[in-house]
Amino acid sequence: MVAKDLRAGRLVRVLEDWCPPFPGYHLYYPDKRRHAPAFAVVLDALRDRG
Predict the structure, then answer these.
(1) Residues 46, 29: contact at Cβ < 8 Å?
(2) What distance in Å separates the CA atoms of residue 6 and residue 1, rounded to the nearest whole number?
(3) What's the pLDDT at 34?
(4) What's the whole-number mean pLDDT along residues 46-50?
(5) Residue at 7 is within a domain
(6) Residue 29 phi/psi, 5° resolution?
(7) How high is the pLDDT of residue 8?
(8) Is 41 domain-assigned?
(9) In a 3-state reduction of DSSP, which class is residue 5?
(10) What is the 3-state secondary structure (H, E, C) of 29-44?
(11) What is the value of pTM for the model shown?
């Protein structure tokens, strides 16, 4: 929806003081031993990005 505006430089960051740097992902899941295979794929993808 905004790709054209991003490329043209018409979008600017606002409230930069309220946007701290993104330190990474924080996930909570109650039982590490039993999660769906799709969730395992997401975890692996996030770990690879770190």
Answers:
(1) no
(2) 10
(3) 74
(4) 76
(5) no
(6) -145, 130
(7) 94
(8) yes
(9) helix
(10) CCCCCCCCHHHHHHHH
(11) 0.41
What local confidence, expressed as pLDDT, does residue 32 receive? 64
For the chain, how many structural domains are there in total? 1
CB 17 within 8 A of CB 8: no
Q: Name the token pair of 20.
A: 């701290």
| 15 lies in some domain | no
> Is residue 17 in some structural domain?
no
Direct distance between the N- and C-terminal alpha carbons of the chain, in angstroms, rounded to an integer: 28
Structure tokens at 34: 């039993």
In which domain, by residue range, is 49 found? 23-50
Q: What tens digit of pLDDT does each residue of 4-45 get?
A: 998 898 988 788 888 888 777 777 777 667 778 898 898 888
